[in-house]
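USER:
Make up one protein:

ASSISTANT:
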Amino acid sequence: MFAKLKNTATLFLGIAILFFAGGLLFVLVVVRAREAGFSTQAIGLLQSSYQVGWLIAAVFIPNLIHRVGHIRVFAAMTASASAVILLQILHIDELAWILERLVMGVCIAGLVIVAESWLNEMSDNSERGRNLAIYTIVSWGAPIAGIWILRFGEPSDDQFFILASVLISLAAIPLLLSVTQTPTLIETARFGLKKLYRITPLGTTGTLLSGMCHGAFFGMTPLYGSVIGLDLSQISTLTSLALFSGIVLQWPIALASDRYDRRIVIVTTTSLAALPALYFAAWGTQDIVQQYFAVSMMGAFTLSLYSQCIAHANDHLEPGQVVPAAGLLVLVYGSGFALIPIIMGQLMAISPNYYYVSNGLLTATLAAYTLYRMLRSESLEDQGEMINLPTGSPYSTVVRAAEEWAEEVDTETKPS
């Protein structure tokens, strides 16, 4: 028992260090790019290219792991990520940074896939819920700590880039020295987007819109703070509040989604996210306290949207469809997330007020579409349990679904 706890603790330590560095870089890159004179459009591309890297990783990293193994992939991604961070110091250029952020997205996503696979391998059914709850806290709490540390330095210095490079290298140590056997990924067939949409229109479209909502909010909040002239301390506070408020309400929203019709919960949360955004779009001021309040309210009800849409999709899927659908929904979500920062970068170059306009319209669109689907279909009496996932890391859905599918197949093939 104590050996298992020790191995889990070392794994969580590595994950925490990894996400700490990721959170630090998420804001630092935007602030440093603004100081270097990058255009608002280029910074929007920076944020999109990182998510495109996640999409690329979702396609080829699992196959690479099957070819060379978890340890080699983790070591390669760690070395590459550390090198890319240092390259950003050596050559500050818009195009170079966009390409480097794309590579960084591939690397971080690859590291997360390996780490989450490892965590699921180390967890049996009696402790998986506890471990996933701890993972959710770590994967969102560590980035907040990474963002907060920016308050204690100057973005013009290279120290934070060097620190992030060192931290990512250190994150590899607990995992590479773990005595736990490396996990095995399960090969599964995919099915097309049209079939998935026919099975669950709201699950598919809602996942795309939730990715767009997250790209507009979590992807663009640091840039918005920079555009309106906040200093580094205020930007880190703004971004931290956006994340922290979402973490606080993750669990209550998940409970409500399990108890009541999920579509009602989606309409409620998206409406509550849209209200402060649309209010500030029309009547907001530059008062920093009001900005903190608005962003906190938006984050509180935006963070859980992906989990709710994924849970609704799973309510309509047969057990054998869960694994391929999960992988496809990851790509749908990531496409929405990657698209919006490019568009918003253009809009915010005209006026920073488009930050609130875009967030308000996107969340309101998801609310309206959900209402439309409720009018088109019967209420769902039997819905499964919502898996409350960390939004920045949707690969947990694929890993967990694959394990459950394997257990079902194993049970069915055993002689009675």
About this structure: Residues 7 and 178 are 7 Å apart (CA to CA).
